Amino acid sequence: MTQPTVTEDTITDTAVARWATAHDPRTAELMTALVRHLHDFARETRLTEDEWMAAVRWLTATGQISDDKRAEFILASDVLGLSMLVVQQNHRLDPAATPATVLGPFHIDGSPEKASGEDMSDGLPGDPLFVHGSVRALDGTPVTGAVLDVWQSDADGTYEAQLDVDEARLRAKYTTGDDGRYCLRTIAPLGYAIPMDGPVGDLVSRTDISPMRPAHIHFLLAVPGYEPLITHLFREGTEFLDSDVVFGVKRELVVGFTRRGPGPTPDGGHSEVPWYEARYDLVLQPAG
């Protein structure tokens, strides 16, 4: 039997019907909705063949520049606001819990374990910074043995994932003690531009969108019995808090960096040079 000729008016229903045959119900739901919205977009914008081909070339280039370190598609999702939308939909936490933000494109698995107060900057240039506080549940109970996976950019705004290096760089895992407290040493982060040398940067450069991110440190916690948390701590008073290109800033995550003179440090040690202190308590929501 010959397939009926599709028309501009029937192509969407025909494609939706085909994708509705997916064996997994959720796949069928996702794909039929995707087809409908893509077709609606094409109709609303009167998409031309040249524009469609330009989009295909952009997606191709985005895939080609991606590798095991560079996640250009995550960056694309971030700057379109999709990443934060998905985060918000999937982490409707108690107002007292630490808010979640985007993972970003630069996380690397397998960071080395560091002792409390140990320096994850390993002598890289920058102002010494101690970040310390506690990890606790909503009811105030200390969370013992919580692993904080921490990563950040260097003084030039560059992450390890952007460099051709073999050793861990400005990333580490710290574990809370019996009292739920943690302490990490690093260097004060700076604001930086997202990578502008790829398809995402090229697209952003065609707009008035600022490519900048405010100074921040990333945290990832996956503690049994609690909702997983991916978040940032942003430096109070830093530039671009009101225009973060990936929409990740939340007021509750902005923390002051207090300048201290040479002397005792939060890890029980002593600094011969001035340093900065940031205090922040991470509050986890029980799972379920």
TrEMBL record:
Keywords: Dioxygenase, Iron, Metal-binding, Oxidoreductase
Source taxon at top rank: Bacteria
Annotated Intradiol ring-cleavage dioxygenases domain residues: 131-159
PROSITE patterns assigned to the protein according to its UniProt record, in alphabetical order: INTRADIOL_DIOXYGENAS (PS00083)
Pfam families in alphabetical order: Dioxygenase_C (PF00775), Dioxygenase_N (PF04444)
Annotated family: Belongs to the intradiol ring-cleavage dioxygenase family.
MF terms in GO: dioxygenase activity
Source organism of the structure: Pseudonocardia tropica
Cofactors that this protein relies on: Fe(3+)
Name of the protein in question: Dioxygenase
